[in-house]
DNA sequence: ATAACACCTAAACCTGACTTTAAGTCAAGC
DNA sequence: GCTTGACTTAAAGTCAGGTTTAGGTGTTAT
């Protein structure tokens, strides 16, 4: 059993945030002894799941709904599984988008590296043709074409 | 030259957001004809960069600082480059973290898949040893050990 | 026994990124 | 000439996710 201060140290999460999570129902049925929160292994595991779901893009309210499902027992296994499958798909999509962003960042790094060397941005396009890996060239095209409808 | 409504359609960004960006100084020296904003290719490219920097985790104020650098001309090439290098490193770190989160999500998918099949969560640990790819087993260890100091 | 410290609550406050509202301008079509 | 639709502004409102504050309790070290 851990005090809120101890858990705060262990996870690097402010005490105020842990209390806020509790208030939002993220630690259902947490024990207390004379009013004081007692974090057990169950709450620590909850906290690990919270950090994971949060990082996967879920809001506090949605995480709370997951905790409610846990409280329902075995009947919610399939819903819980569906939740994690959904998060997995969402995260994979997000990572794909980040690859795109990373390609633009790399292009911009190259661009300013070149501009710095040349002293000007004039005519950088002309330097492009073969000096960059294909995935960045592709991005260059995207970045400088007229934008498409969305 | 494009109207704000046209740009909104092209980029899928609300008109109110474009005006907000303008107010925050993200389109320095944008042209106007009798009060009405005129988006040129320069503003469209700015918008592409804004979306990229935003996706890389920069705040509106930080993006504004970048736009100010652009206004300074060639003297800021190296600072601009440093900015993009920093964003690139940050994004790469973030993606590494997301890989970790993804491993936990995959583990949880497996976990509830198994629980659903077994009808209970009892004894799932025992099923673990060789049924999962190593990167998930590693995560299972992380998830069930006592947490470390941070 | 008194100070220090960790804990408690409720409620107010904060920040970032927008969005909405209210009131007005302006050009084009009927 | 008047309505319609796209534009304008400043200011207020919204939402999530906390953080801070004010006032109080309970245990421990000097």
Q: What is the fold's blueprint, element by element?
A:
The structure is a homodimer of 150-residue chains.
Chain A: H1 4-11, H2 15-23, E1 31-33, E2 36-38, H3 41-55, H4 60-72, H5 77-118, H6 124-127, H7 134-144
Antiparallel strand pairs in A: 1-2
Helix pairs in contact in A: 5-7
The structure holds a DNA duplex (30 and 30 nucleotides).
- How do the SSEs of chain A run, as a string of H and E? HHEEHHHHH
Q: Shape of chain A, please?
A: elongated
| Main sheet makeup of chain A | 2 strands, antiparallel
CATH topology of the largest domain in chain A: Multidrug-efflux Transporter Regulator, Chain: A, Domain 2
Largest interface, and how many residues on either side? A-B, 47 and 47 residues
The portion of residues assigned to helices of chain A is 55-70%
How far the N terminus sits from the C terminus of chain A, by CA atoms, comes to: 53 Å
Distinct helical segment count of chain A: 7
Q: Any idea how many domains of chain A? A: 2
Poorly predicted runs of 5 or more residues of chain A: 141-150
Return the CATH class of the largest domain in chain A: Mainly Alpha
